[in-house]
Predict the 3D structure of the following.
Amino acid sequence: MNKEVAIIGVGWSGFHPSTPEVSYKELMYAAAVRAYADAGVDPRRDIESFVTVAEDFIEGTSIFDEYVPDQLGAALKSVHTITGDGLHGLATAYMLIRTGVFDVVAVEGHSKASNIQTLDSIVGHAQDPVLNRPLRLNTHFVAGLEMQRYLHDSGSSLEQCAAVVVKNRHNALKNPLASYSANLTAEDVMQGPPLAWPLGRLETATPVDGSVVIVLASGRKAAELSDNPVWIAGMGWCNGSASLESREWSTLPYVEKAAQMAYRQAGIGDPWDEVDFAEIDDTYAYKELQSLEALGICAFGEAGELLMQGAFDPYGEFPVNASGGSLGVGHLLDATGLHRALEAVLQLRGEAGAHQIEDVHTGLVQSWRGVPTTSAAVAIFDNQEG
Amino acid sequence: MTLLERDREAPSAWKGSLPVTSRYTYGLAGERFFRALKDEGKILASYCPKCDHTYVPAVNFCERCLSELTEWQDAGLVGVLHTYTLLFVDFEGQPLDEPELIGFISFGDGGIIHKLDANPDELEIGMPMKAVLKPQKERSGSILDIRCFQPVNK
Ligand SMILES: [Zn+2]
């Protein structure tokens, strides 16, 4: 088993639909201080390098990476910002440690979604400017097209997609970090307002504000600093063809490749048997089913049926999004992958509280950058107790 | 959805915007594709013999093998409805008065995203759909030179 890099500290601030009292710097600061205390490190003395994930248009500031060092204790240190999901940031921090140059690295992601007045337009400007953007379509149309073709090819049903929402928002009732916990029925979800039919508004995650900071250490340093390290057993990432004109519409080959890369490193042959739980993409309800199949947790077209049998419930054979996922907790924009990593770390330390899953040793985390992207990352975490 | 409300005592915020205006160069292949659409009313494809893959809209390199593509073909104006959606919000996220029907029409191994002129109930994945072009003198060399796609038997 891979014991090169461990997570030795996690911290968060938020998660709330709106955080008008604090600036994004104060959100980051609060998460960082908590993570450093959790890791038992002094950031100015012990942390050698910092990675953050952010997107200039989301922040409303050009060259946003200039604004990240101060509130993390990263001034006059090695620091850089990448445009990717939080898991891409985690992969970068993981690689920094694997170079042997750094022993302790922190990674940060945040969402100040409540400050963004034109989120749909920002996402709209991610569409191809020549082929797609002239049509002036809300980018949710990409999810509507994908869901329609996925249902057609996989045989999954509208009821099964609605059941993902029911499960995740119900799971969120036990998670104090969750903003969108609710007891719903599949009828409530299916009778909700349409967004990009067959996709409904209630099947779409709502943004929240928050920040997540994770501290990583080399095996040597983790042994010295931590008595509950969570090991990064594997990390993979992959992009498909971004072009709407040449992508696959019912399968997620880039999720499949990212997972294979992570499984190979972690020595996982059959994730259903060898992984105990997963926190995965549910930005749109159908994505949870489609992603489970791409991750090889089950075969194409099987996820919906397994869901209805309760296999993915917190007490089922393979708990998925026991935290409530993005549908239940809220979507943290670029920090979403780090939110899932945080949940997996808490589970593997036995610190998940009311939604703790019993007897877990290996967790899977997967993330997608949202419409219109074909960008995914997968991480395997292990507490080495198994 | 949530009981958390805005804090009225919260400090205020500065409001600002980020104006961005760009030229988006069509490129050599895009220029040829859109010129054919404008002048001849044709949708062009390019073919990779090595991968046996037909790109629509035409491109001048193969993303699979990175070969330069030199075999250009007329893809015709009739494609196949690969998937579709009924969109209820506009570009900015505001509710639309009338929902918009959007489809991906496959041509060769690629295809075109566009608006559909159809009754949603008559649509079926796999049915043939034809491009409705603007009259030649209204065309400007853009994807909007295609007005929409319609079922062939309409
Ligand atoms: Zn080729």
User: Anything to note?
Assistant: Residues 5-117+208-230 of chain A form a domain with the Peroxisomal Thiolase; Chain A, domain 1 fold (CATH 3.40.47.10). Residues B 48, 50-51, 53, 62, 64-65, 67 surround zinc ion (CB under 6 Å). The radius of gyration of chain A is 19 Å. Chain A touches chain B through 50 residues (CB under 8 Å).
